[in-house]
Amino acid sequence: MRLAAGWCLAGAVLLANGAVAQAPADPHLDLEQVDGAAAMAKVKGWNSRSLATLEAQPHFADYQSRALAFLSDTQKIAEPNGVQGGQVLNFWQDAEHPRGLWRTSPLADYTAGKPVWRTLIDVGALGAKDGKKWVFKGATCLSPTYVTCMVALSNGGGDAVVEREFDMTSASFIDGGFTLPEAKTEISWAGPDALYVGTDFGPGSMTDSGYARIVKLWKRGTPLASATLVSEGEKSDVSVGARVMVDGDRTWPLLVRGVDFYHHKLSHIAPDGKLIPSPLPDDADVDDILDGRLIATLKSAWQGHPIGSVVAYSIPDLLAGKTPVIETVFVPTAHQAIEDVGASKSVLWVKLLDDVSGRLLVLRRAPDGRWSGQSVALADKSSVHLNATASDSDTAFVTVEGMLTPPTLYSVTPGAAPVAVQALPAKFDAANMVVEQHFATSKDGTKVPYFLVHRKDLKGPVPAYMHAYGGFELAQTPTYLINEPYRSGPAALYWVEEGNAYVLANIRGGGEYGPAWHDAALREKRQNAYDDLYAVAEDLVKAGITSKGRIAVSGRSNGGLMASVALTQRPDLFGAAIIGSPLTDMKRFSHLLAGASWMGEYGNPDVPADWAFISKYSPYQNIKPGVHYPTPFIYTSTRDDRVHPGHARKFAARLEDDHDPFFYYEAIEGGHAAGVEPKEDALRAALVTTYLNLELPKTPAKK
């Protein structure tokens, strides 16, 4: 590992001869002070310099205004956030309500495509009244009436929230109702007058990851301090929480102790309060409950059930002291991956990927315990989003979209053709555009899929804008080109319209082919994800689509880590890098905000054996003086309380140490999404597009 003279990380450094030397302190630790005067002065200087250059580029104002029109358009899908008690819930943002409206419509009207909306909370008006920059973070409503809810509000968009009890009938907060102060809180209803609460109860009550370590039962009319203990975990755990799942007219409380990001101890909370351990392996994911059966997806092979399978068992049998039979619900093929599972009144809905195209299945259980079902006819090479399922009928709502196909919301019932509830018109002319799926061959021979979008009259090589993620078993699927703020919104559309190529790479570490695809890039195998990325880029070059030095790599969060790794490992291959809300200092990530929760993904940098492989790619430590790096565009948010903004700041500072150019923009609000209102996402789309135009040459370099 080669570093600038006089610079290294604090702590011991292993020398080539095996000796241990003490390293100088990290000179940029002050940038980890989120609101520190020196840090904010540096950020404001970088922001000002970058905005002055990028906003002065040709067409910036047009890009921004068009993006704002896209993102604020009232012609968009009013997707259901839940279907409860005959009502559909929806969170809506537009130009008039940039902070959003939480609202509800009767299910029958909504399904007929003629919703009758009643506003529950105008978030912007509430913020103005309270003197806060409120961001709506969801609500937990009490079954079976769904009249009383706990509403989560974040001041600025971070993960920490205030919880307040709300009455749906009067559309108002309840005076003297349950209220919890700002914290990373998890709550569930334990009955009409009690809550399961995991929150900051004071010193020692939070984990190293910054989440609740203790769960208590809080009864109405008593102070929070007198809540009774349900369970507590270890300080090294990720979190401990109670989750109450609704099954018709019954509820089943669960206690989930997250040991690390991928392993959790699951117990059922019996009526007498005792904890009954689940028979599931620790890495299984709980999906839903149907007719007293817990449904879960396996992340490893178990008791004869293949990896990725969906299984079920009887909760009443377990609580009665019996050993429940483990039923096979669904087994995916080698080309498939389970993404989402949800129960309605009497059937199970399974949303899966098949070579990265979305599919939807509806499954039923026979009296003998066998599960069978059928596929729902939906468009190919599309993303399928299982938005919500109804608890008192067998209705599911799904949105289907493709890169060139605008979203359509369907109501689906078993045995019937999907019914379009709302179909959006095209927002751009795609007649001269095409979407292709290709497969690159990675360094170890693995076939890596990617989607390529370009104009039909493309004559390569042209500049390419390539987005990827590669982590946490999160698949990257094809969505309408204007709809992804995390992928910089309509920047991809602008890029294709202007005759360039846009690429969505499905590298390992994601969930495109299930748990095995994710496991192939875990911990010491992380380089596989980056090798996949380079294989896709090189495949584009080989095919004549683009050429070396004319490819921009893009990613956010873990994808921001990926993009900064690509910058440092392959400056010869890429000509630009869009690095969003990134991790970059992988030596300190586990000590910053929620970072400790991700050690299951990356390893523990404080363990020498783990740091040995992490240090090989950690971007902050691998910037080398004298290397010509592409000029990156780095963005984050001051209020990101998940991935610390210090990662982005310190990476920029390391580039500055060596006089390497960069663009930097740090939004004050937005949390991990780096944006709250459409205007912020529109600004970023314009910045990204002008950055790409500035950094990627339109014609190949002369040989």
**What name goes with the CATH superfamily of the domain at 30-68 and 450-695?**
Alpha/Beta hydrolase fold, catalytic domain
Number of helices: 13
Averaged pLDDT: 93
Side by side, the strands of the main sheet go: 32-33-35-34-36-37-38-39
- Helicity range: 10-25%
Rounded to the nearest angstrom, the distance between the terminal CA atoms is 32 Å
- Structural class label: alpha+beta
CATH architecture of the domain at 30-68 and 450-695: 3-Layer(aba) Sandwich
- Envelope shape: globular
Q: Describe the main β-sheet briefly.
A: 8 strands, mixed
Spans with pLDDT under 50 lasting ≥5 residues? 1-22
Strand content: 25-35%
Number of strands: 39
How are the SSEs ordered, and which strands pair?
Layout: E1 11-14, E2 20-23, H1 37-54, H2 60-72, E3 82-84, E4 87-92, E5 101-106, H3 107-111, E6 118-122, H4 123-130, E7 134-141, E8 148-155, E9 161-167, E10 172-173, E11 179-183, E12 186-191, E13 194-198, E14 214-219, E15 228-232, E16 239-247, E17 250-260, E18 263-269, E19 275-277, E20 285-290, E21 293-297, E22 310-314, H5 315-319, E23 327-330, E24 336-343, E25 348-354, E26 357-365, E27 371-375, E28 383-389, E29 396-401, E30 408-412, E31 419-423, E32 433-441, E33 447-455, E34 464-467, H6 491-497, E35 501-505, H7 515-519, H8 527-542, E36 551-556, H9 558-569, E37 576-580, H10 599-602, H11 608-614, E38 632-637, H12 646-657, E39 663-667, H13 678-695
Parallel strand pairs: 34-35, 34-36, 36-37, 37-38, 38-39
Antiparallel strand pairs: 1-2, 3-4, 4-5, 5-6, 7-8, 8-9, 9-10, 9-11, 12-13, 13-14, 14-15, 16-17, 17-18, 18-19, 20-21, 21-22, 22-23, 24-25, 25-26, 26-27, 28-29, 29-30, 30-31, 32-33, 33-35
Helix pairs in contact: 2-13, 6-13
Pfam families: Peptidase_S9, Peptidase_S9_N
Protein name: Prolyl oligopeptidase family serine peptidase
Keywords: Hydrolase, Protease, Serine protease, Signal
